Amino acid sequence: MERPKVRGPTLGTEAARGEAAHETEKERILSCSPLAPLASPSRQALLELGTLERLARRQRLVQQGAPPRHLILLGAGRVRVERTSEGRVFPLGHRGPGDLVGESALAGATVATESATVLDEGDALLVPLAGLERLAAADAVLRAALAARQLETEARLGSLLLCTVEARLLEFLGAAARRWGQPHAAGQLVSAPFTHADIALLIGSTRETVTLLLGKLKRAGLISFDRRRIVIRDGAHLAARAASA
After folding, report:
1. Which residue, among 83, 80, 81, 68, has the nearest Cα to 126 in the 3D structure?
2. Chain CA centroid to CA 228, Å
3. Which class is 21-162 in CATH?
4. How many beta carbons lie within 10 A of that of residue 23, not counting itself?
5. Which residues have C-beta within 8 Å of that of residue 234, sequence separation ≥ 6?
6. Are 114 and 149 spatial neighbours (Cβ–Cβ below 8 Å)?
7. Phi (first) and psi of residue 67, to 5 degrees
8. pLDDT (tens digit, 9 = 90+) per residue, 3-34?
9. Contact status, residue 233 vs residue 186, Cβ threshold 8 Å
10. Domain residues of the chain, as ranges?
11. Which pLDDT belongs to residue 173?
């Protein structure tokens, strides 16, 4: 008797599995973003609008002065955001998983007010601005989340102008621990590979000054280093010091 042939999964089954994984990944990215509190139907509409994209190192996501096209919800990786004015570059920070990129376009500007470049490869959910603006007009939670992020960006610029270098460094360390912190035997490891030059650019200082201040914090027992990564040894003391700086 002839044995029945064993058939593999059909193309339709494979496509369905791929589509399910695709939708699961979109949901994961949205759920770790500031837009996570969105309720249906706005939440479902946002997921249907968005597309997944793999981010390559050095890829330019947003170009200052160019018409914006998307709001970007980061799922993995690291992105540098900066603004140029009168030939001077103002760093607005590094964005990571759960952060938004390009939200300033929703304020009505016809061109992007900052540039964003991928530092560490990852993935993101890209939402077309035209559709997003329609959603924001009808959803107060979405409008509030986007407005809060814009205020945070402007506060970052104010910090560069008004705070001391040490205060800006302490603020940076606290934010880095919240965004990229991982459990470590000595405290909390900042997993993102920030060099002293990176930190200097972000806080508006010099590499030499950052090196001196980090050494001071290390001697005080607040931080240490593990394979060139910063370890926050005493987060509470660090926050208290930042508040009084």
Report:
1. 68
2. 21
3. mainly beta
4. 13
5. 187, 221, 222
6. no
7. -60, 130
8. 444 444 555 565 566 778 888 999 999 998 88
9. yes
10. 21-162, 165-244
11. 92
Q: How would you classify residue 15: left for phi > 0, otherwise alpha for psi between -120 and 50, otherwise beta?
A: alpha
Cis peptide before 183 (omega within 30 of 0): no
Query: SS3 string of 3-18?
Result: CCCCCCCCHHHHHHHH
- Strand extents, DSSP E, the chain: 51-55, 60-62, 70-85, 88-95, 100-101, 115-128, 181-184, 187-190, 223-226, 229-232
**Residue indicated by tokens 């980061």:** 74
Tens digits of residue pLDDT in 112-150: 888 999 999 999 999 998 888 888 887 887 777 777 666
Angle between helix axes 165-180 and 207-219 (nearest 10 degrees) is 70
Q: Render pLDDT for 79-120 as a digit per residue (tens, 0 to 9).
A: 999 989 888 888 888 888 988 898 776 666 688 888 999 999
CATH value of 165-244 in 1.10.10.10, 3.40.309.10, 3.30.420.40, 1.10.10.60: 1.10.10.10
Helical pair 129-138 and 140-162, crossing angle rounded to 10 deg: 110
Across-strand partners of 183? 188
Residue 120 pLDDT: 92
Q: Which amino acid is at 55?
A: L
Rg for the chain, CA atoms, rounded: 21
Paired tokens of 240: 């208290």
